[in-house]
Design brief:
The complex is a heterodimer of chains A (336) and B (316). Chain A is of the alpha/beta class and 336 residues long. Helix content of chain A is 30%, strand content 17%. Chain A has two domains: 153 residues, 3-Layer(aba) Sandwich (Rossmann fold), CATH 3.40.50.970; 140 residues, 3-Layer(aba) Sandwich (Rossmann fold). Chain A is built from eleven helices and twelve strands. In chain A, the strands form two sheets. Chain A has a seven-stranded mixed sheet, sandwiched between helices. In chain A, helix 7 links the parallel strand 8 and strand 9. In chain A, helix 2 runs parallel beside helix 3. With 316 residues, chain B is of the alpha/beta class. Helices cover 41% and strands 11% of the residues of chain B. Chain B has a six-stranded parallel sheet, with helices on both faces. Chain B starts with a helix and ends in a 16-residue tail after the last helix. The chains are: A alpha/beta (336), B alpha/beta (316). At the A-B interface, helix 2, helix 3 and helix 4 of A face helix 5 and helix 6 of B.
């Protein structure tokens, strides 16, 4: 994109440093020079304002944060300014700005390095909120976000950096606003957000061994959200579970449950179920963090309950203390 | 010089007209009038070209008009009409006239300062011959983004001019209750840029200082800070005088009003034989008629249709 569009530039804490935002900005400065690829002062609010101003002046900035927690310092510019410009200009102005940020998890990231704050941004008209799960969607949605004429919160998950999958070399777009059926099924719909789509997939695989066919829908874009695919799925299955990376209370999962309840009340065979984080900040110690994050086995238990099926043997991972739950896989060695 | 005089009179008379008409309750949005402060925005904008960028504040009628914004569209905006500069969506606090380089204003103190720096970054990346001006009040220098924007602008040597319109009050609170030292212009040194203080009621002083800063910015010399000290005549928000609130010393207010920027400039124009009294009177008449036309236009314009409520949330 930077090759074909001179309006695109990228900056953020650590963008050109040796770690290059977990490799995602690797080699960009060498290729495109220090004017278009640069590190920034630790001024999240001011630099977001700089990005908004550059966007108002016709550029397409990509701002990058290593943790979404840091974007809170820029709430004024994101919510009061970037999100409002188009509307309060009577449609005369646009803010084509992409703000990348990462949700941390594990290895003791704790309360200020692992929050899932997407629901806060998804609450605000004027913003778009994108959360890819697969490598293919990550590229296609990022291209679509940078080309979009609106401020986009592009939220990545640290535990998805280790996932592999086919990604075409050429530029392609995944349109914003459309969920995707990740795995087909007919007994139960599990709507997943970001990394929780993978946990939902694992839960669906567990249930499949017992003959339960769960459909997994990856929400991909929180705002705008065309919920037709979700409605179609729930109309088919009559059961809904929503797996979110964030807190349950006033969370994004509540939005999905509310929409389904409003539109498909008569089709539901059970009460819908939210899967999210309990009402406390992220603890640091693995001893507590292991009980903080919902797991596939937990979701499978709830799936069985919704279908009225007795569990076949105990496969709860929580009962196996030898397993470290604070890393996504053995290749993840911390510390960040 | 004649242009500056005309713009100052235009701003003053527009604010006075708003103050008179506000009681009709047809302008239904918060109104932060800038009467008494005209010299700062006019002195600044006199140094800018139409394609230079300017970013303002919620006390923004002055800079909107000084940068060349259309008076009819502004009045219509205050009346909430579809013919307003933002179709009635932004109101008095968020005026804009991008067609003449007035990019936007903000109801948040300090909100547009980093945005002006961002526009300057865009200018630099595109290697354009333009400058960007950040226009803000004294309280904005208490916001973190001011310091962040000053630092980044200096770090990248961006073509931006910071103009602080210091009227000493944040709503009803004097600067001495908010800032440890009375030295806004000196803080420029901490960020490695020149900083000067000028009498913000003398339009020629503002003009000279900003012109030097604009030349510096245009020639790649980076940003500058100008602190222009002035005084708000009427209340913080609304059409009234507010001596009954007794948050400011009546003698202080009287002294500032006696140093009216327009009257002072009239003396200069007379001394230098640039404008006669009758020429000045002609300007005033012309301005008053322009305002009358703009108010009539605003009053007779339609409100936006209900279908506009959900329009423009997102850009296509």
């Amino acid at each position: 994109m930077m090759k074909t569009d001179s309006r695109v530039f990228i900056f953020g804490e650590g963008v050109p440093d040796p770690k290059a935002i977990f490799g995602s900005t690797d080699g960009l400065q060498e290729q495109f020079g220090p004017e278009r690829v640069f590190d920034m002062p630790l001024s999240e609010a001011g630099m977001t304002g700089v990005a908004v101003g550059a966007a108002l002046a016709g550029m397409r900035p990509v701002m990058t944060h290593q943790r979404i927690d840091f974007t809170l310092l820029a709430m004024d510019q994101i919510v009061n300014h970037a999100a409002k410009r188009c509307y309060t200009s009577g449609g005369r102005q646009a803010v084509p700005l992409t703000i990348r940020s990462i949700i941390g998890r594990g290895w003791g990231q704790g309360s200020q390095h692992s929050q899932s704050l997407h629901a806060m941004y998804a609450h605000v008209p004027g913003l778009k909120v994108v959360m890819p799960t697969t490598p293919y969607d990550a590229k296609g949605l990022l291209v679509a976000s940078i080309e979009d004429n609106n401020p986009v919160m592009f939220i990545e998950h640290r535990w998805l950096y280790g996932i592999t999958g086919p990604v075409p070399e050429e530029i392609y777009r995944v349109p914003l606003g459309q969920p995707k059926v990740f795995r087909e099924g007919s007994d139960l719909t599990i709507v997943g957000v970001s990394y929780m789509t993978l946990e939902a997939f694992r839960a669906a695989e567990m249930l499949a061994r017992e003959g339960i066919k769960a459909e997994v829908v990856d929400v991909r874009t929180l705002r705008p959200l065309d919920d037709a695919i979700i409605m179609e799925s729930v109309r088919k299955t009559g059961r809904l579970m929503v797996a979110d990376t964030g807190w349950e209370t006033v969370g994004f999962s509540a939005e999905i449950v509310a929409r389904v309840a409003e539109k498909l009340h008569g089709h539901l065979k059970n009460a819908p179920k939210r899967i999210g984080l309990p009402d406390c900040p992220t603890p640091t110690t693995p001893a507590l963090a292991n009980h903080y994050y919902p797991l596939a086995s937990h979701m499978a238990d709830i799936g069985r309950e919704m279908l009225g099926v007795k569990p076949s043997g105990n496969n709860s991972q929580r009962d196996k203390p030898a397993i470290h739950l604070d890393i996504p896989d053995r290749s993840f060695t911390g510390p960040f | 010089m004649q242009w500056m005089y005309r713009q100052m009179v235009l701003i003053r008379e527009t604010e006075e007209a708003i103050a008179r008409l506000y009681h009709e309750k047809q302008m239904r949005c918060p109104m932060h009038l800038c009467g008494g402060q005209e010299a700062v925005s006019v002195g600044l904008c006199a140094t800018l070209r139409t394609d230079d960028y300017a970013f303002g504040t919620y006390r923004g009628h002055g800079i909107y008009l000084a940068k060349g914004g259309d008076l009819k569209q502004m009045m219509a905006e205050l009346y909430g009409k579809v013919t307003g500069c933002t179709r009635g969506k932004g109101g008095s606090m968020q005026l804009m006239a991008p067609e003449v380089g007035f990019v936007c204003a903000s109801a948040l103190v300090g909100g547009t300062i980093p945005e002006a720096v961002g526009a300057a970054l865009a200018i630099k990346l595109r290697r354009e011959d333009r400058v960007s001006a950040a226009f803000f009040g004294d309280a904005a220098t208490e916001e973190g983004v001011w310091h962040e924007a000053m630092n980044f602008a200096s770090l990248k040597k961006l073509p931006v001019v910071f103009v602080c319109e210091n009227n000493f009050f944040a709503v009803y609170t004097h600067m001495s209750h908010r800032q440890a030292t009375d030295n806004i212009y000196q803080r420029a040194a901490a960020y490695g840029m020149p900083g000067v203080r000028v009498d913000g009621n003398k339009v020629t002083e503002v003009f000279e200082a900003v012109r030097e800063a604009v030349v510096r910015a245009r020639s790649g010399g980076g940003p500058s800070l100008i602190e222009a000290r002035t005084y708000r005549w009427r209340e913080h928000c609304g059409p009234n005088w507010d001596e009954e609130l007794s948050y400011r010393d009546p003698e202080e207010a009287k002294a500032w009003i006696a140093r009216c920027p327009i009257q002072q400039f009239e003396q200069v124009l007379t001394q230098q034989q640039l404008m006669t009294a009758s020429q000045r009177e002609a300007v005033r008449k012309e301005v008053l008629s322009e305002i009358e036309t703009a108010v009539a236009f605003a009053k007779s314009s339609p409100f936006p249709d209900v279908s506009e409520l959900m329009q423009g949330v997102y850009a296509p």
